[in-house]
C-alpha cells in the first residue's frame, strides 16, 4: 500500500503564493473601496484646499491602488520570468490504487 503523501503534488513556495494572493486581493479591495455604499459614506460637506472631500477620497484610493500595483510589479515580473511549475503526472502515476 502506498502512502498518500508520496502522490501529493508539491505546492508552490509560500512567497509565490503570497505574492499571487496580494495581486488578487489588491483590485478586489480597490473595487470594494470604490463601491457606492463605502464611497458614499465619505460624502460629507467638507472641503480640503477647496476640493470636496469625496473627490479627495476617490483620488487617495486611486493613488493607493497605483502604489500597490507598483510595489507588486517587480515581484510579479520575477515570478513570470521563473515560474514555479509542477509537471503533470504521467499516465499511471499519482494514483493510490494498486494494480
Report on the structure:
The protein has 99 residues and is mainly alpha-helical. The protein has one domain (12-81). The chain has three helices and two strands. Strands 1-2 form a two-stranded antiparallel ribbon. α1 runs antiparallel to α3. The radius of gyration is 23 Å and the shape is elongated.
Summarize the structure.
The chain has helices at 14-34, 36-40, 53-81; strands at 47-48, 51-52.
Number of contiguous helices: 3
The strand line-up of the biggest sheet is 1-2
Write the H/E string, N to C: HHEEH
Using the CA coordinates, give the radius of gyration: 23 Å
Structural class by sheet pairing and helices = mainly alpha
Based on CA inertia axes, which overall geometry fits? elongated
- Unreliable stretches: none
Give helix % range. Answer: 55-70%
Number of beta-strand segments: 2
- The overall average pLDDT, rounded, is 78
State which percent range the strand residues make up.
under 5%
What brief labels describe this structure?
mainly alpha; 3 helices; two-stranded antiparallel ribbon; 99 residues
Sequence-ordered SSE layout with sheet pairings:
Elements: H1 14-34, H2 36-40, E1 47-48, E2 51-52, H3 53-81
Antiparallel strand pairs: 1-2
Helix pairs in contact: 1-3
